[in-house]
Amino acid sequence: MSRIISLSEAASIGIHGIILVAQGKKLVNVQFIADATNTSRHHVAKIMQRLVKEGFLESQRGPNGGFTLKKKAKDINFLDVYEAIEGKLETTKCPLDKQICPFNKCILNNVTYDMTIKFREYLQSQTLNNYL
To answer: Which domains does the chain have, with CATH numbers?
Structure first.
């Protein structure tokens, strides 16, 4: 099945995982996030460590370990988390990144550019605070 817009599993785990951490009253561990998102424990661990490395989370090892926010929930938006996992969200006029088009105007009428702008604006407007 084809989808016009899709979010990678990694980005989905990162955004959902960090919300779960923000909502937690105590340390939130990898197994809890994996169960809540119905994803691989190994994949969750990899994504969450990326968010630690990028400065969003702190982690504690051990049987009672887990993750806590390193920044305030109001200071973390979805775009920051998305870009920490996927890289910078590019906004280009041409979906194929072509410098020269054989037509006088974009045959897609810049719809992909507009969708990317709206997606970026939405991600940027959503902070973890919105989900507490």
So the answer is: 9-131 (1.10.10.10)
